[in-house]
Amino acid sequence: MGKLVDTIRERFADKIVDAHDRQGDETVVVARDHALEVYRFLRDDPEMAFDFLIDLTAVDYFGKTPRFEVVGHLFSLPKCRRLRVKVPVDEKDCRAPSLSSLWKSANWLEREVFDMFGIRFDGHPDLRRILMYPEFEGHALRKDYPHDRRQPIIPERDPVENPWPPRRLGAAR
Amino acid sequence: MTLPAERAEMGTPDRSHEIMELQMGPSHPASHGTIKFNLKLDGETIVDCDVEIGYLHRGFEKMCEQGTWTQVFPYTDRLNYASPLINNVGFALAAEKLAGIQAPERAQWIRMLTSEISRITDHLTCLGMAGVEVGAFTVGLYTNEAREYLYDLVETLTGARLTVSYCRIGGVTNDLPAQFGEVLADRFAKIRAVLADCDKLLTRNRIFVDRMSGVGRLSQEDAISYSLTGPLLRATGVNYDVRKQCPYLFYDQVDFEVPLGSRGDNYDRFLVRFREIEQSMRIAEQCLAKMSAGPVIVSDSRFALPPKRDVYNSIEGLMNHFKIVIEGIKLPAGETYLAVEGANGELGFYLVSDGSGRPYRVRVRPPCFFGMASLGDVLKGHMLADIVTTFGMINMIGGECDR
Questions:
Q1: Residues B298-313: pLDDT tens digits?
Q2: Which of A90, A126, A161, B260 has the lowest CB atom count within 10 Å?
Q3: Beta-carbon separation of B50 and A159 below 8 A
Q4: The domain made up of A3-93 is a member of CATH 3.30.460.80
């Protein structure tokens, strides 16, 4: 197994649920409560130096427990390597810690995960839908959302009387 | 006209510093893309800008889960429709990484060649529109003409200008047509002439420089924090190009430079793209020179359709054909992430397979999504008219950003 994954495992011991490097992609699975701590370490530690949050998404493993996995892809420009961090999220308590305090790009990425999967991010300054409109029912990328489902027709929204939910004032961006 | 002092005497409120809310878009003639800016303006200065995307959301990731792996290719054409071949290549490479196979050498050279042709068409689109938006309409016509030279060529290769669907898992659909290299060399000569004209028209044009220089600046720290890649990141001086740092295909065997900016403003973004066109042409020429004859798709019957000769004349060929068409190519269960350098930055594919013939999850990392996320911050303090140039240089492609 890769050296990188071993180092992280030694550092965090039982906080790392699983680690592997299948298909050459080094991956760690982190318990949800420690995710923010691990991400902060990966970004700030000079040995790790993962300065880019390249991508953040989720996968719905419908029928399994925990049902969701929030998947982050990190890239370190100084070390020129990649790492995948997965955080399991249960359906009953569908929330994960927000990374928006670490990377500015996490803001929009987490909004998209919320929009598509309904996973809430604790500590997100401005969690609202991004690709869909506020009246959209359900979360489109969940496996129990049929791809041909019709949405109810919504009345025209008066932009003055009933504007798009505004960004929260004072929200850190 | 009444003076402010007189207004105060008359009891009329002074509205000169009132914040005005303005909704620009989603269909605004100056923005080539369906997008909405919710603006708060003090006069013409932007106090706050909330960017709304999603107007071109077609459920790309959801639709990918409905068909077979091969049926994803036509969807990828419609991501960044200014450079569809790069999307094709990115998805094919990710799927091959998951399957643990490699395309034949010639197919890999062809993929590099077509990727670079696509990068040129994308940059030409972006630069031409940048000119049009600040009033240099001529440049838009010139670059469109140059782009057409390449689209013609892509048509001879794939049969379509935009919706190419050229790659397959394990290779490409067909080999280069006869005399492709000669025609390409001729077209490149024409494009170089067009670029020389555009250079004279824009690069030191007073109006153009005034509108672009110093506008839309982003520091290196912010660019990294916003996960920007591609020309937007390189304009700030950070040297990150997937082709250099994490080479795929044969990018480590060709000689090319990565143009860098220094100030991270719109003018640097323009220059980086402009210089990248020349580098892409260099890579394409080297690809043609280094290519040798050979097959363009793997002969493994688990992944590639057998030749028609076998389908009609042997039971194995017929069965393989049937299995791939009806059940789809079965990629082993697992997950993978693979990134290629798209025209706008790192184009990543995160694929999850459950071992059946259908994708379990296809996630695209769209490079311009991140540029759009930074736009609200970048525009603060700028003038209303700067939205047009900054948005143009981010080069948001709706199909890719909204998927």
A1: 888 888 888 888 889 9
A2: A161
A3: no
A4: yes
